[in-house]
Amino acid sequence: MDDSFFDLNDEPEGVGGGVLESSMGGSASKVGATRTKQTNFSAYEDNVLCKSWLEISCDPVINTGQRRESFWIRVVNRYNSNCGRYPKRTQKSITNRWDHIKAEVSKFSGYMAEMIRSNPSGMSDADKSVAAAADFASVEKHNFTLMHCWKILKDEPKWMELKRKMDMLQNSGSRKDAPPNGHHILDLDAGNSAPSTSAPSSSSGKRPMGRDAAKAAKKKAASSEYVSKIHDLSVQKIELFKETEGERKARLDEIVTLEKVKVEEAREHRKMKLDIEREKLALERRRLDMEAEKKKEEAEKKEKEEDERILAINLDQCQPLQRMYYQALQEDIIQKLVASRCHGPGL
Known about the structure:
Residues 266-310 form a coiled coil. Residues 143-333 form the No apical meristem-associated C-terminal domain. Keywords: Coiled coil. Residues 1-32, 170-221 are annotated as: Disordered. 67% of the residues lie in helices and 0% in strands. The protein has ten helices and no strands. The longest helix is centred in the C-terminal third of the chain and has 101 residues, at 211-311.
């Protein structure tokens, strides 16, 4: 590649803001003297910056044949046209923020790659990202707050290509040309030339631990804890299973007992209903007998009163036909009365 061009991902050094800010209608000194401190980047602005960087760096027409100054001018213009209601940013602000995103996301990518290589059983992709973030916080002594940027950049071909380059660089053992943030950095601004050796604005300048040391520290801090947690979870699952089996057996025994009680209660209920029905039938029979007896008594009473009335008729005062009628009735009454008293046939 000609020295007059650079890879789109090359470190934005020396692009202080002279070109962009002259193009925006003011000198760098004038802007620096009059501008006020801008607010911190929000997650939305980080996403816009990452997407703008990807769109410009992956431009199929210009591709990598861009001068450094024009590349970052295009990134800044693309960002400011897509930032919406958020404030527009200067080139210096954007490049500084990109340096921070690049360093942090590169470190986290190393931890995530190690987590994927170890492939703990029973962990989903989301669980692995959480575990990688925990490893990041344990080693780097601060939380990883750019997960939204990592999700945008992680599957991009440019990222994967740079990751392979960084892996090759690490495997070659060239410590002098390695990025200053240790084996966890995948330099997003590294091109086909040697990686930039300037540290990001957020780095502390302290020599970071190498790949083997970082792996050993991470495994020492996490392996025993992870194995212990897995063991505790296994024991808890076994105890829970045993407890569940015991509870299930007790519940089944309780259900069987309840069913037996229900069957016995149903049997007793049926027996009680039958007894009640028998009593009802007996009471109804008694009632009918009493009604029949009452009717019989009433009929006998009426018959007796009628017999007495007939016997009390004076035949001498009756007409001849009436006399013959009532005389016959009186004779029948006398015979019936004699028969009921004598209890003998023919009498």
